[in-house]
Amino acid sequence: MSKSFDVVVIGGGPGGYVAAIRAAQLGFNTACIDEWKNDKGGPAPGGTCTNVGCIPSKALLQSSEHFEHARLHFADHGISTGDVGIDVAKMLGRKDGVVKQNNDGILYLFKKNKVTFFHGRGSFVAAKDGGYELKAGDEAITTKHVVIATGSNARALPGLAFDEELVLSNDGALRIPATPKKLGVIGSGVIGLELGSVWRRLGAEVVVLEAMPAFLPAVDEGVAKEAAKLFKKQGLAIELGVKIGEVKTSKKGQTSQVSVAYTDAKGVEQKLDVDKLIVSIGRVPNTIGLNAEAVGLKLDGRGAIEVDGDCKTNLPNVWAVGDVVRGPMLAHKAEEEGVAVAERIAGQHGHVDFDIIPSVIYTSPEIAQVGKTEQQLKAEGRGYKAGQFPFLANGRARALGDTSGFVKILADAATDEILGVHIIGPMASELIAEATMAMAFKASAEDIARICHAHPSLSESTKEAALAVDKRTLNF
């Protein structure tokens, strides 16, 4: 006899596991189905983010940044280290340990909140008695409400499959066993820049090929220009406006290579030979194995599940959140949608404000933004004022030894309401939270300018940028 639940969540990534926990907190008999496996075949909930995305990449970024600081910057602090080496295997082991802690943490949270967990693939079988029959691994279960949170997969180049040895997705790029001499990256988005930065710090020569004519077009132009300058100074070679041609892989004994033919921005045919190639050209919604056709679940042309503003699908009591639906493919966006859906199932008014979802690139310096960019405001014809403050003039940044970048605040020309905040510099990922909260409460630049910020702190740069909107900075 099949087990019956009020709510079943398919997918245990950030959107899925949070939706399951919130549904259970609201009194629903809830289950979550997830098929991720660890290296021993056991459950590894947390989705792409925890297993091959956000968490492991940040672990490697931290390790590689420590290595670079020891090699290049410790001497500035009077610290003598001698020759500094890197044990890549141990670094990867630490990364795997961090991932496992997060996997285990989610399983603990399921147990704490009385969420039933099924390890295996979740899929539809049929609509049945006003609800749905599902398959959870090898088990049959029934439920009234289904929340689909199956995430996304790396997009491959046409005709070039990921082998995760020479041609790497984010998965393979996180477990390269030794630092390659030369690393190619196709795509200069978040994944390409972050993982390219990791291996550059460890000694690889990194070349990034980007099809777009502009660098980081979704980022504020001033920030993108500063980032390009700083990355070039670090040794990250970035070529824009390229057209990728044939990609060949070859193995001769112990030697392997990837050869990329491409046309550069001037129309000249070029060839790049590398030891490894990371392909990071975006992600595609994951509906593989969901058996959507069994119940008539509607997908769009990209394979994403069609939903309305409340994350409702075309089917009664079937919802979808995260990367598998419209909107930015960000873990925190998925989490907010997951909570909102659980609350809507309970008859509450779950809410997600898509206009103030922050985004971060965890390079060094970090890049973070929320709200509108200058180019967006210009395109809209909206009047605005801009205030900018450099970390070079911030006392805490000087003490840290990291004064690159700035904070920029954009405010409405008439009302002074904050329309966007853009940061490139140390701890931008943490500083953006103040800006996001300010925008959530419809704060003005003057509001931030009038709030006392601790001294010395990096957050004083946000206050100074707010003062700069009215051309009255105190420290620059």
UniProtKB/TrEMBL annotation:
Residues annotated as binding FAD: K58, G122, T150, G151, S152, D323, M329, L330, A331, H332
Source organism's superkingdom? Bacteria
Q: Which cofactor does it need?
A: FAD
For this UniProt record, give its keywords in alphabetical order, as a comma-separated list. Cytoplasm, FAD, Flavoprotein, NAD, Nucleotide-binding, Oxidoreductase, Redox-active center
Signal peptide from the UniProt entry: none
Q: Which cysteines are joined by disulfide bonds?
A: C49-C54
Recite the UniProt cofactor note for this protein: Binds 1 FAD per subunit.
Q: Which residues cross the membrane?
A: none
Q: What is its EC number?
A: 1.8.1.4
- Enzyme class, UniProt record, top EC level: oxidoreductase
Q: Which reaction does it catalyse?
A: N(6)-[(R)-dihydrolipoyl]-L-lysyl-[protein] + NAD(+) = N(6)-[(R)-lipoyl]-L-lysyl-[protein] + NADH + H(+)
Instruction: Check the record and name the InterPro entries matching this protein.
Output: Class-I_Pyr_Nuc-Dis_Oxidored (IPR050151), FAD/NAD-bd_sf (IPR036188), FAD/NAD-binding_dom (IPR023753), FAD/NAD-linked_Rdtase_dimer_sf (IPR016156), Lipoamide_DH (IPR006258), Pyr_nuc-diS_OxRdtase (IPR001100), Pyr_nucl-diS_OxRdtase_dimer (IPR004099)
Residues annotated for NAD(+) binding in this entry: G187, S188, G189, V190, I191, G192, L193, E194, E210, G282
Q: Which GO terms describe its cellular component?
A: cytoplasm
From the Swiss-Prot or TrEMBL record, state where the protein is found: Cytoplasm
Domain spans labelled Pyridine nucleotide-disulphide oxidoreductase dimerisation = 357-466
What residues form the catalytic site here? H455 (proton acceptor)
| GO MF terms held by the record | dihydrolipoyl dehydrogenase (NADH) activity; flavin adenine dinucleotide binding
Does the record carry Flavoprotein as a key word?
A: yes
Coiled coil start-end: none
- Which processes are annotated in GO (biological process)? 2-oxoglutarate metabolic process
Instruction: List the NCBIfam families hit by this protein, alphabetically.
Output: lipoamide_DH
Q: What family does the database annotate? A: Belongs to the class-I pyridine nucleotide-disulfide oxidoreductase family.
Q: Any other comment in the entry?
A: The active site is a redox-active disulfide bond.
Q: What is this protein called?
A: Dihydrolipoyl dehydrogenase
Q: What is the lineage of its organism?
A: Bacteria, Pseudomonadati, Pseudomonadota, Betaproteobacteria, Burkholderiales
